[in-house]
Amino acid sequence: MVKNTGRPGYLQIADDLREQIRTGALAPGAPLPSTTQLAERYEASLSVVKLAVGVLRNEGLVIGQQGKGVFVREGAAPAPAPSDELTEIRATLHDLSERLARVESALNDRP
What share of the chain is helix, strand, coil (3-state, %, to 5)? Predict the structure, then answer.
């Protein structure tokens, strides 16, 4: 299930699927569950699941086959974990987004 952690749901789903690939729970050549099944499993919308699968495609971990589904690539090696610098940038961006939302709210509440 996608948690309300401030990290986008599609990245949480991609992280979980990446971990399943890394541990072998999703073996090379194995199909990913359908988009609908993943949406139900993670209690997320189809578009969020599609974004997550897109992240894995961009990383080269999965490959889509027209009319057949999405499969774990043979020899897929997960991308390295994000660097500390990237994690810090994401945290700062999240903080700035929250601050901007508070400022906009205050401006909207003005008479």
Answer: 55, 10, 35
CA atoms of 34 and 36, how far apart (whole Å): 5
Judge contact between 57 and 64, C-beta under 8 A: yes
Over the Cα atoms of the chain, what is R_g? 17
Region of 63 (left: φ > 0; alpha: ψ -120 to 50; beta: rest) is beta
pTM comes to 0.66
pLDDT in tens, 30-80: 999 999 999 999 999 999 999 999 999 999 999 999 989 999 998 765 555
Task: Work out the angle at residue 21's Cα, subtended by the Cα atoms of residues 18 and 27, and round it to the nearest 5 degrees.
Answer: 160
Helix axes 9-23, 46-58, angle to 10 degrees: 50
Nearest partner of 56 among 87, 77, 41, judged by Cα: 77
Q: At residue 8, what is the residue type? A: P
Quote the Cα angle for 34-50-21, to 5°: 65
